[in-house]
C-alpha cells in the first residue's frame, strides 16, 4: 500500500488521480488532500477517501468543512502555508504535485525538501525553478516521476538508457483547436473557442496554453530539468491524434515511441506505481480504430510562443520565470476578455523585451522576479484597454 499526498485534489489532474486510487483499491491510500477554492468537492473527497490531513484556501472554508463532517475528522489546514505544511509533514510515500501555475512551486519545493517521491504535474514549478528543484532533490534524496503525458512517455522510453545513447527527445503536441485556423482569423478567437480542446479534457489554464502552444514551450523547459537534457536535443512535433506522446531518438537512428490512449489516468497510474506496473483501468489502445497517425512540423508564425520558449530554454533562470509569469497574467486576461487571443503572445513578448536574464539562486529571488513581472504585465495590459 502506497500512501499518496495529493496537492490540487479538485483540479483535473487531482480528480483523475483520485479515480486511479479509487479503481486500484488496496494499492494506494490518499492520506493528504490539498485544494484551494472548491470547498464542496473537497468535502465530498474527504468523505470518500478519509485522508488524515487536508488543506483548503480560506480559514472560513476550513471551519465550514469541520462543521459539516461527522465522525472521525482529518486535520484541516488552510492558506498557502497549509498546502506547504501538508506537502512537508504528511506521512506519505509519494506527493502528487498538481496545483496549477506558479502557486504550486512552494508546496512542491516543500515536498522535495523532505526527500519524498514527487509525481510532478505542476510544470510551472519546474519551469520557474528547475535548477533549484534539482539541487534540492539531490540534497534530500527526493526523486521526480513525471505525470505530464509527454514526459511520462519520455521517462518510459529513456528507462535505463545512458545519456550518450540519446540523440534527441521529441515531445508531441496536438496543435490545439487553432491548428488549421487561417492566420488572419486567430485574433478573433474567443475564450470559449480556445477552451474547446479537440483531444484532451484539461483545466482552463493548460487548455489556453495548449491553444497558443505555450504549453509545449513550458514542457520543453520541464523536460530539460526533469531529464537533465541539453536544450539542443529537445524537439516538438505536432501530432493531432495525441496517441504518440513522446519519441526518443537513439544515436544509431533507432527511434522509440510511447503510445497510449489520450487519457491522463494512464500516465498518472504509472507515476503512482513506478517502478512497478499494474493492470490498466481503460480499454486497450485500438490502433486499427485510430487509423492514421499524422505528424506536422510546428509553424512558428502560428505559434510564436514556441520560439519565445526556445529562447527561454537556452537562457539563464530569470528568462523562464519571467516568461511563465507574463503568460499566467496574459492567459487570465484573455479568459476575462481583457486581451485578444493574439494579444497573449504580444503581451509576453513585450514583457520579455529588454530583459537581461540572470541566475536566480534562491526561492526568494524567484518569487520576487515572478512578482515583479506579474505586476509589470498587469499594468501593461491595463494601459492597453
Ligand atoms: Mg502535456
Overview of this structure, please?
The protein has helices at 12-23, 39-49, 59-68, 79-89, 105-113, 123-140, 149-158, 191-194, 204-212, 214-227, 265-273, 287-290, 304-314, 317-335, 341-352, 363-384; strands at residues 2-7, 28-34, 53-56, 75-78, 94-97, 117-120, 143-146, 166-173, 234-238, 244-250, 255-259. It is an alpha/beta fold. The protein has two domains: 2-146, 3-Layer(aba) Sandwich (Rossmann fold), CATH 3.40.50.720; 151-262 and 292-383, RNA polymerase sigma factor, region 2, helix turn helix motif (Rna Polymerase Sigma Factor, Chain: A, Orthogonal Bundle), CATH 1.10.1740. The strands form two sheets. A seven-stranded parallel β-sheet has the order 4-3-2-1-5-6-7, with helices on both faces. A four-stranded mixed β-sheet has the order 9-8-10-11, with helices on one face. The longest helix is centred in the C-terminal third of the chain and has 22 residues, at 363-384. The N and C termini lie far apart (54 Å). The structure holds magnesium ion. Magnesium ion binds at residues 148-150, 219. Residues 148-150, 219 line the site of magnesium ion (MG).
